[in-house]
User: Fold this.
Amino acid sequence: MAGENFPILIVEDNIALAELIRIKLVKAGYRNHRIAGTGRDVIRSIAEEPPTLMLLDYTLPDMLADELVQKLADDGIQIPFIMMTGHGDELIAVKMMKLGAINYVTKEGNFANKIPAEVEKAVRHIQLMQESAQNLALLHESEATFLALTDNLKDIVIMADGDKLIYVNNGFDPNISRIFHEHSNIRKFLQVIPCANLALILEKTLLDEGSNSIAEEVQMGCKQYPGRWIWVRSFPVSNAGEKSLRKIVILSDITERKEFERKILETIIHTEEKERKLFAQDLHDGLGPLISGIKHFINAIENRSTNEEVRSLATEAKKHCEHAIDETRSLANDVTPAVLEDFGLVRAIEFYVAGLRKTTDLIVVSVFEYNCKLSPLKESMMLRVVRELISNSVKHASAKQAVLKIFGDGGIFTLDYCDSGIGIQNQKEGEDGGHGLRNIRNRVASIGGRISAGNREGAGYGVNITIPY
Assistant:
């Protein structure tokens, strides 16, 4: 930035001293310079070609340096300068530093030899200031673009710096933005938000001092957003040279998407249940009678044959047919339990639990306070959920006892299950625990239900399911 690209104005009424300074600058490579001996000369020179830097003597024939700097400032002109002051004028130097001087040089000894080094320092300082100004302009431009984009989004975008909110757009709820304009402090902002669920979510994301990103889907339970699903994303943003992290939190209303997913899943499961029923019917009405017919033929051979060996083989074959008939009935009942269709969910669970006593040591304690009526599809799903939970307790948890509670109140069906097993070892937050439990979650979600599952203190693994009816 030296030479012709860095014009310097030497403001010094001592012609000999000004010439000496000029020579030192030329030797250092600064050839673009002019000399002014008075304040009026400075103003006239700046009007013709503003310099990048001034070397400014304090005492001029027509005005003092502080008067000159103030006059330029009144005209909207601010030019970086190095103050040149006489010996013993340090107080004046400090005063000029407050007015914007980059540095000062005391006029004593061979002070002119110091000028090139001071100018070099000033050059670096001015370069940094110009780069900072350019970066700041780019930042403002980026922020303006960001704000223009987010103002038209349906998502709520929140920016925070420390404990202070710096931006909240309207998004899907303009009330949140209105509260921000009244309360920029995060804690006061959270206290005023009418939805307690949303306040808890924002407290978790905005006040978290960690540097991890967060992404989760949350179903709201407050009256402001009844049943609405919100996708919460939090991104920490670090600023160069700053210890604190800025946070950007984005809240997206994904209720329509979740409802669409639920309907797709419900259709899949409904089709699956329909196919199960048809398969069970085919077993009962098709394969069952066919095996029974084979059994009758074998019975006829057994009764009419005089060959003892043939009669013995027929007797053995008849036993296998009877076993096949029993297995076919059992399979058809497992696929679509007749007791569920005839007597409902509670009797079907009791029937299943009674059958467990013949094959396992697991003791299931059942508590039913259930007088409501779920749809056939929901009852079928809940029976399959109970079977899956008990099967997991037997196969994976080494449980000796399980407690199953089912009750309905206030339009909500609740199923709570907990075993005495080992639970899920080393379970991480957000893990479902396996394919079976993920399948249960999907089934519950498809019918608009909610589920919480995990290891329970002092017990094994527990699952709580609520479904509207």
